Amino acid sequence: MSNEYLVQARGLSLRYGSKTAVDNIGFSIPKGRVVGLLGHNGAGKTSLMKALVGLLPGQGQLSVMGLNPVARREQLLASLSYIPDVAVLPRWARAEELITLMSGLQPRFSAERARALLKRTSVSPRDKVKSLSKGMVTQLHLALVAAIDSRLMILDEPTLGLDVMSRKSFYEMLIDEWCDGERSVLISTHQVEEIETLLSDVLMLDDGKLVLNISLDEMDSRFVALSHDPAASEAVAAAHPLLRYRQQGRPVALFDGDLPPDVAGLGQRMRPSLVDLFMALTRKPEIQRQA
Question: Which domain-ending residue is among 207, 238, 261?
Fold first, then answer.
């Protein structure tokens, strides 16, 4: 597989016994990208992330920084950072003790950088994990992980259960202190609308299938929405849009590709949001809202 990519998958399938979690997908992640991994619960996101860090073997081809994640897991973890959906830090430890512990465990960890990152949070070096709120534990975890000189960071629902301000602080720190144009981040999250402005690319899973693999720039040129009067709803529906919904009280239809000529003049073109596209590609047709 090409050395140009930090991650490359071809014909990748992941199974638990007879259950297929990820079904024959292919994608690549080059350096310097912030990639959103989107999908409903059970879509295969966590299984894919486990495969990327060598915790789940699969069928097909998977290369992470040029390595087989299962066969070369120890070597891989030396240059990869991972925060799972349940981030656990020892409750007895102080923040400073965790920095010392990481210094002994991870050769690419910088204690000096960890202390500098910690100053951006509301956590002091003397604070014990058991005294911290969930948001503060997440901030501490990111400060520790971001102090590792790695090329790829994998985040599985990193802000799950946090309030809006804590989520905002987490992502600001991630973008400001870790993303440098060379490293890449893969983020799995349900807060689609919150991270859209951070992303450069999107991978979208639905029932184990990869239904979208696209950059945000390509998304803007490929998909278009039409806001129209209710009187035009029947004509717009006849053009078979991906999704019909309402926005600011008006019917809107989302199309893959340019607007069909017979409906282009029936309303106003709009840029669909990533949330709209997520609904269009992963929501079952029988439960789509009719405009």
Answer: 207
Residues 49 and 174 in one domain: yes
Neighbouring CB atoms inside 10 A of 133's CB total 13
pTM above 0.85, yes or no: yes
The yes-or-no verdict on residue 3 having pLDDT over 70 is: no
Torsion of CA 135, 138, 51, 76, to 10 degrees: 170
Averaged pLDDT for residues 151-179: 86
Choice between 290 and 262, residue whose per-residue pLDDT is larger: 262
How far is 14 from 23, CA to CA, in rounded Å?
A: 7
Question: 184-188 and 152-156 as β-strands: parallel, antiparallel, unpaired?
Answer: parallel
Give me the chain's average pLDDT, please.
Answer: 90
Angle between helices 95-105 and 134-146 (to 10 degrees): 30
> How many domains, in total, are found in the chain?
2
CA distance 76 to 69: 7
Gap between the Cα atoms of 233 and 270, Å rounded: 16
Contact 145/173 with Cβ under 8 angstroms?
no
Residue appearing with tokens 């071809």: 10
Structure-token pair, residue 134: 């969930």
* Within a domain: 242: yes
Q: Which token pair is 225?
A: 């929405």
158 and 275 housed in the same domain: no
Q: Which of 207, 231, 257 is the last residue of a domain?
A: 207
| ∠ CA 87-165-280, rounded to 5° | 80
Q: Which of 41-45, 203-207, 283-287 has the lowest mean pLDDT?
A: 283-287
Instruction: Indicate which CATH number applies to the domain containing 182.
Output: 3.40.50.300
Residues 56 and 161: their CA atoms lie apart, in Å, by: 26
Q: Would residue 210 be called left, alpha or beta, if left means φ above 0 and alpha means ψ between -120 and 50 degrees?
A: beta
Residues 163 and 245 placed together within one structural domain of the fold? no
Residues 220 and 257 sit within 8 Å (Cβ to Cβ): no
